[in-house]
Amino acid sequence: MKSSSKILLAPVLALVLLISCGKKEDGIEVGEAPSESTEIQLTEEQFQTMKMEWGELHTGEFSEEIAVQGTVQIPVEGMREITTYFGGYVQDLKLIEGEEVRKGQVLFTLENPEFLRLQQDYLETKSQLAYLKAEWERQKTLAQEQISAQKNFLKAAADYEAAMAKTQSLKKQLALIAIDGETLSPATMRSKISITSPIAGFVEEVLAVPGQFLPSAAKALTLMSKEHIHVELVLFEQDAGKVHTGQIVEFTSPDRPDEVLKAKIKVVGKSINAQRQINVHADLIDEKEEAKLTPGMFLQARIQLDPQRSLAVPEESIIEVGEEYYILVQKSKSAGAFTLQKIKVTPGAKGKHYRAIATDVALDSTAVVLIKGGFNLL
């Protein structure tokens, strides 16, 4: 040894004498370095024998990741609870949970004699309008010529306007149960109405049964549309400040663990819940991939944070020793030998071939790093 801070790696014949206190790799005896050692001597022969390689430092943009969990969700506009404005007996209900439905498809019918009374009232009131209008116009003319009292004209006007209001009200009530007042006639009156699907999707839950009297506003079915699916992520409080809209999310699903899908953050929650978490909403970048997802599905995701410019080294040059990480940098070179400096680093984000590092030691961008065989020296 030259000193307590340096270790000499001698040629093979000389190192045979140290076999009892060293380790052997491909015929090369490597002496154990003191834990406080920061420099290592390496000969050209050892470099070639152990098939070592040099690499360069790199400076680039690297993005760290936050590992989060999430689920596949459907936005509220894709959910529908099927209720009715008027009560009635459920008929022709044959749907089952998970069944696909088309927009406008008849889900079931509802029967109630009150539907007939509503249509009758409308037709009767509508039929009186022509007479009331004619009487109003007649009384108006008589009042202008001072032949009839003004009160007769006012009563005729009130009767006509009241009938008009009632007709319009009944017409709109009929529209709520999909009956067109314009085409309604005594011959087309019916006691049964059809309840149709407002969206294209699938049946999530069936709550009514055939023959049941369904009160007004009671829920009969719930539907969901898969036309738009988003990813709902759960982020812990300490990471909330690192995330914003526009960042990329990579995620995998349990049934396709090897297939990575991508989404973009659209909304970041503004409040933290009782579990000290915040919700993050992300939309798939390729909407065609939504077909691969099922609402409620569990996801493992990684949020790509904003890239930071950082010093990096080839990933294979980082040597793990216990719970610490090191790189070996060529400090000097002489005839047939190298002096290496052991530098402690903190690995960061990964790139395609490089990994960002942080270190307390200032490194020159022209520094040469040992990228292969370093584990034999530490």
Q: Which spans of ≥5 residues are poorly predicted at pLDDT below 50?
A: 1-33
**What's the alpha carbon Rg, rounded to whole Å?**
40 Å
Order of helices and strands: EHEEEHEEEEEEEHHEEEEEEEEEEEEEEE
Mean pLDDT: 84
Question: Percent of residues in helical segments?
Answer: 10-25%
CATH architecture field of the largest domain: Beta Barrel
- Cα end-to-end separation: 16 Å
| β-strand number | 26
Give the domain tally: 4
Outline: elongated
CATH topology of the largest domain: conserved putative lor/sdh protein from methanococcus maripaludis s2 fold
Largest sheet: 8 strands, mixed
| Count of helical stretches | 4
Provide a quick synopsis of the model.
The protein is of the alpha+beta class and 378 residues long.
Task: Describe what you observe in this structure.
There is one protein chain. The protein has helices at residues 12-15, 44-49, 114-144, 150-176, and strands spanning 6-7, 22-25, 28-31, 39-43, 53-56, 58-62, 65-73, 79-82, 88-91, 100-101, 106-111, 192-196, 201-206, 213-214, 221-224, 230-236, 248-253, 256-268, 277-284, 298-304, 308-314, 319-321, 324-334, 337-350, 354-358, 368-372. It is built from four helices and 26 strands. The model is unreliable at 1-33 (pLDDT under 50). It has four domains: 6-60 and 310-376, conserved putative lor/sdh protein from methanococcus maripaludis s2 fold (Beta Barrel), CATH 2.40.420; 65-76 and 227-304, Efflux pump adaptor protein, beta barrel domain (Elongation Factor Tu (Ef-tu), domain 3, Beta Barrel), CATH 2.40.30; 78-107 and 194-223, Beta Barrel (OB fold (Dihydrolipoamide Acetyltransferase, E2P)); 114-188, Helix Hairpins, CATH 1.10.287. The radius of gyration is 40 Å and the shape is elongated. β18 and β19 form a beta hairpin. Strands 1, 4, 6, 21, 22, 23, 24 and 25 form an eight-stranded mixed beta sheet that branches. A six-stranded antiparallel beta barrel has the order 7-16-19-18-17-20. The protein is an alpha+beta fold and 378 residues long.
